[in-house]
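Possible regression after last week's pipeline update?

I re-ran a chain I had predicted before the update to compare outputs. Posting the input and the new output here so someone can diff against the archived version. Not blocking, just want to make sure nothing changed silently.
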Amino acid sequence: MSDKKIIKIPISYDQRKINEYGDGYVPCLVSERWLQFPETANNENNIIVDVMTQTEGNKPRKLCELILSRNDLLRAIDSVEIE
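New output (post-update):
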């Protein structure tokens, strides 16, 4: 196949990271940190969320782990007003 027939589809940096880390990836808009939500939760009430950063070698590193109530997360998100 000729390289002239290959059409490159542009992909954003954010989409590339979602593809790399999964749908649980929630980036910080001003730093190299992100929240990493699990694909599945151990129970329906609590979710373990990893706070991640990137090392100088562009490798992910976990800073800490948060165990959060799913209901508290949803309540907090719903309480944020959009201007």
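Follow-up from reviewer: compared with the archived run. DSSP finds two helices and four strands in the chain. Marking as no regression found.
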